[in-house]
Design goal:
- The protein has 526 residues and is mainly alpha-helical.
- The protein has a single domain, classed as Amino acid/polyamine transporter I (Up-down Bundle), CATH 1.20.1740.
Length: 526
């Protein structure tokens, strides 16, 4: 062993010794998540019943609050971005960015996108268009018509663009501003000091708030991994004829968990940054490939009309807890989406803050709110538009495919009908694996950070914490897919996501109120 290696190992040991565990956060959060994984193995029906009842109860009871807080978050983000507040630099006027713009955007985009846009870029518009699970019954739109295609595109834009990314961005901004400009700790509780003072960062309340945030993101990650397992498994079955089941899902869980665990253990610069760069480039290639191969004019026209339909129905969709559009549309899609975005938001905010030092608030919002939203519009416009065009012109019956194979099955029939489909399909499968791994490695690192006392943004948490969280998340995702798939194929993981959002919803509400106070009432720290 060289002297340099010995010195590096010695430094790591000293650093690890200094980074003490926040037992009040780590122990309850790990016991709940790990206990859920064990319960799923021992009695999966009980776990399914608990999560299902939590899912239904939380979204029926709190749907109104999800909708209101999402609109308020959007309004705050718009004001902060386009007012003088946007000129404030995170870290002070002399602070310099660590990452160049393209690297920063790659980490921000792939850290939060997970498998969502690939999973639902084709499936979600087709599900609306065909009224597969009753989504269109209370909308007054006839399924299978030209108006249904426009509605499907508009609703997809609504669920995947400016409103949800406003949630991420607002949480991230509050964390970054409190950490870099007001010199508070790198935690969720520090974002609430404008409301409650420094006392909220000490004692039992700090532990409760950060435990809820960790619990929410862990359940959200398990949900995303579960959806990815279901999607890749359905693709292998549809394309290669290998029947999916627990054995296949176990193998996929092992591969994906190994990738994001290794990346997380390598750290921010050596693992997460590298994986993000690869992932985002594959996204760009897939997007441009379909722009060239797909019905470009149809996609442009339908996307434009879809944006118009969304803006026309902005308030009706934005404040509907299910009374107007019905539960099949609102609870199982929009409110579910809001639940999982809010589940991610506080902890995702810490990751976004860590990589954003030296940027102005306006730059922060451009990278974390505007550009990801535009990316999603283009992605859904191209992939969803092509799927709708093929469905309407009888190229492939994606509605029937989803009815027969589940909510995530349409993607593979869609890809099989593309030119060079035999090449593109394995690329998409690899992209799905990379997409989840890229989101999970950053979140596992952030969870481990939150379980550590007084850690700085440029320090790495100890490796055993990352490993424990990664294994727990992988286990509970496998259990929910293998034993709680349900009619849509992903019911179990949807239940998990909603529970995660419910666990942290009130913390997010307080973050929004805290943002209002710190930016519009308190003295601004430049």
């Amino acid at each position: 062993m060289s002297f340099a290696t010995e010195k590096e190992n010695a430094t790591e040991i000293v650093t690890d010794a200094k980074l003490k565990t926040r037992k009040g956060v780590f122990l309850p959060a790990f016991l709940l998540v790990g206990g859920g994984a064990v319960l799923g193995i021992v009695n999966n029906k009980l776990l399914t019943d608990i999560t299902m009842n939590g899912f239904i109860g939380s979204l029926r009871g709190l749907g109104w609050l999800y909708q209101i807080i999402s609109i308020v978050a959007l309004a705050i983000v718009i004001i902060v971005t386009f007012s003088k507040l946007g000129n404030i630099r995170l870290g002070g006027k002399d602070s310099k960015p660590k990452y160049k713009f393209s690297v920063w955007f790659a980490m921000a985009l792939t850290g939060g996108i997970a498998t969502g846009v690939i999973t639902y870029g084709v499936n979600e518009p087709i599900i609306y268009f065909g009224n597969i699970y009753g989504e269109m019954e209370q909308t007054g739109v006839e399924p299978g018509t030209n108006l249904a295609a426009i509605y499907a595109m508009g609703r997809s834009f609504y669920n995947w663009t400016f409103i949800p990314y406003a949630m991420y961005s607002l949480s991230g901004l509050v964390v970054a501003y409190m950490y870099y400009n007001r010199k508070k700790s790198l935690s969720v509780t520090s974002t609430l000091t404008p409301l409650f003072g420094d006392k909220v960062t000490k004692g039992i309340w700090a532990s409760i708030i950060d435990t809820l945030a960790v619990l929410a993101i862990a359940l959200g990650l398990a949900s995303s991994l579960g959806a990815g397992l279901s999607l890749v498994g359905s693709g292998i079955e549809a394309i290669y004829g290998i029947t999916q089941g627990p054995l296949m899902w176990l193998g996929l869980t092992f591969v994906i968990t190994a990738i994001f665990t290794i990346s997380s253990l390598k750290g921010l610069d050596k693992g997460i940054r590298w994986l993000s760069d690869i992932n985002v480039k594959v996204f760009y290639i897939l997007l441009f490939a379909l722009i060239i191969l797909g019905p470009t004019l149809f996609s442009l026209r339908t996307s434009t009309a879809g944006l118009a339909y969304w803006l026309q129905n902005f308030w009706g969709w934005g404040l509907d807890p299910g009374n107007i559009g019905g539960e099949a549309l609102v609870m199982w899609w929009t409110l579910y989406d809001w639940a999982i975005w809010i589940a991610y938001a506080p902890v995702m905010g810490i990751f976004l803050a860590v990589i954003s030092q030296g940027r102005t608030i306006r730059e922060f919002m451009i990278v974390n709110w505007i550009l990801p939203s535009v990316f999603s519009i283009v992605w859904f416009g191209v992939w969803g538009g092509t799927a709708l065009h093929w469905q309407q012109n009888n190229v492939v019956d994606l509605v029937k495919t989803i009815k027969d194979g589940g909510a995530v099955a349409g993607l593979w029939a869609f890809l099989a009908n593309m030119p060079l489909g035999s090449v593109i399909i394995p690329v998409v499968m690899i992209t799905l694996i990379l997409s989840f791994a890229t989101a999970a490695d950053s979140m596992v690192r952030t969870i481990a950070t939150m379980c550590t006392v007084n850690i700085r943004h440029d320090e790495e948490p100890v490796k055993w914490k990352k490993l424990l969280w990664a294994l727990s998340i992988g286990t509970i995702a496998f259990v929910m897919v293998a034993y709680a798939g349900g009619a849509q194929g992903v019911d179990g993981v949807k239940y998990l996501a909603a529970l995660g959002g419910s666990a942290v919803l009130f913390v997010f509400v307080l973050q929004v109120v805290s943002a209002i106070k710190m930016f519009f009432i308190d003295k601004i720290e430049k």
